[in-house]
Amino acid sequence: MYVIPLLYRISSMNDHVSITRLHYTxxxxxxxxxxxxxxxxxxxxxxxxxxxxxxxNIILDGDMKSNRLTIVNIxxxxxxxxxxxxxxxxxxxxxxxxxxxxxxxxHILRHYHQSQDSITYENDDLLTENDHILISIHHAIFDGAxxxxxxxxxxxxxxxxxxxxxxxxxxxxxxYIDYSVHEHIMDMSLSRxxxxxxxxxxxxxxxxxxxxxxxxxxxxxxRSGLASxxxxxxxxxxxxxxxxxASSHHLTPFQLGLxxxxxxxxxxxxxxxxxxxxxxxxxRYRNELQNMIGMFVSTLPYRAELDPHWSxxxxxxxxxxxxxxxxxxxxxxxxxxxxxxxxxxxNVSFLEIMFDxxxxxxxxxxxxxxxxxxxxxxxxxxxxMSKFDFSVTFEYNPLSDxxxxxxxxxxxxxxFEKSTISKIAQRFEYMLKQLFKTQLxxxxxxxxxxxxxxxxxxxPDEAEEMKLVVFHRLENIVNEAPASFAQARIWLDERIRFxxxxxxxxxxxxxxxxxxQSSHTLSVKQLHQALQITVDKHLSxxxxxxxxxxMNVLMQRVITRKENHTDMFSIIESTYETDxxxxxxxxxxxxxxxxxxxxxxxxxxxxxxxxxxxxSNDLLSDKDILIxxxxxxxxxxxSMNxxxxxxNQAYTTGQLLYDDNTLLRYLDYAVIEQQMAMxxxxxxxxxxxHDCKLDQSLSLPFDRxxxxxxxxxxxxxxxxxxxxxxxxxxxxxxxSSNNIPLEHLTFAICFIFLFKLxxxxxxxxxxxxxxxxRYRDELKSIIGLFE
Length: 787
Prior knowledge:
With 787 residues, this protein is α+β, with helices and mostly antiparallel strands. It is 33% helix and 20% strand.
């Protein structure tokens, strides 16, 4: 896991490298740099980790293999063998032995044909086109900045004679061990105070809320090391905009990349503002350390306390100031930071999230051995190991034509599936494009003045999910399908809110009450026929809801005439003489739970209430009452407009024109609804309700409280009042002048009232029905429950 691989390939057929010369060069560089032959082990007496520089003559004696150089022959005809061989090498348990100073290895991957004399070929000293050199170095003695120093010395020694090499090795020069000793005696009291102030008040054990697929076991802290990886390659326009922004705002690419990463974590964690991650610092704070091979890199906590109302410009400024302040104290060891806070590496959350920015230099991109230029080859993603739960690394390569700026996400497969990281990478790229986006003029500008709250991780195709859905007649659905989400909510609500052992009160009866205008009449017979025609067209008005225990799903089923020889709805007639009698009838229509039977599909009824006596001439007069009553599980308020429109047409013309074979049904909607992609909607609601205590009641001035095992009685206390002419006028004027829908304005007033009623509670969550949820034109002619 802590191997730094350097892979180079001879790319020209005219180039070659001498294995003997390379072996000598390799030995010479190890001789020059003490750290490349340094052992690390634990002192049994005091438990300290000790480094011991081994004698060059002892460690380099012996054949090539013991001197860390191994030749591996690769079949030219097997294109996958190179990657397979590299994977085997890097995964060798005995690749290194820190306790014995075996910290660097060189493998030569040489191609040959099966027909070739392998014995003769093995004695051939020259490497040629497509041969590879793999140098593996343990991270404990080597960091990224050491690479260019190491490659420079390899190149220099390979091209020089032995006497020149010896002259270049100054035994009196500063070594890594000297640095280590100096590091332990430095006065770090100011840095200790700095890091204490940086982390004060932060819960270092708190895990950032990331969209993991699974949690790490609380008992097993072992990592597999396996990685889920995604890579983003930014186009030239974004690269240019990125660099221009950094330059104009006096930011380093690292600081700009880190600013973007903070905003991304802010959105990914649903608005978490106190963010602490880890990043690395070169830590070569003195000139004499610049040309020394060793492990200088310091892993440090980078804490940012964001304001969600900040613009990206303000975030970038904050990050720049943070990085500059850290620079002065980057030498303070992580062990001290953790020790000062009584922590260990195993229980610190910020160490699991890593950010880095790498700028590729020419000195690393190519290895020059005499006149032969070997090009660095990137390792296959499958060879990457995950040291952290979640790491993001930007790479800027000015030498590349088509991949100048890229970003890789390397995350632990213990927590994240590959598909999850791939989707997270898409969201990261999309968010970055929102900051650095193309305007209509095709000039690349940055949208960095807006609040970071406005940045969105919902991808364009997810935002368009609803528009991509096609509601159509489903040929495979005859008369039965799973209930819609809305139906299931109503059905379940009826069963859990009230005590089944006590007389129930209906809560989902929907009576609509009408009376004839003066001098108008209505034919009861004609009404009956019109109702039959309307009910025949709208299947929801004769659909049952039953729970299928075997499938564990609520099903809806259209009841047809063949199954039920009686009418699919009922017409009830009664009379009244007094207002009290009428009110009792109206109350019964509203509260009687026996009027409907969902299991039998009896969900609609018509109640004709005659004044004093039933009409003898089959006509309703202006004193008679007409009630259309529906069960809410199959009907919503906008459905009434559809019902009345079709009822009027059926009453007037005696027919409704439609094709029963192609007509879109509520059944079709319910099936397609459950097949719809809802990723964007899911992200929106998860983000909106994150950290909302949904199971916590508001602190209202109750007279008594519900017991945990107590059912509702259904009894209500209600009061209504009139706003009055002046207040109503001001209310309507305010809504109109500010272009605010009336329901939004009343909702805002309700929130303010609850804020005061709860003595200042600011996190308020309440429910509101979206009555007209027919978000597509083809749904606007369907009777059913869409709210």
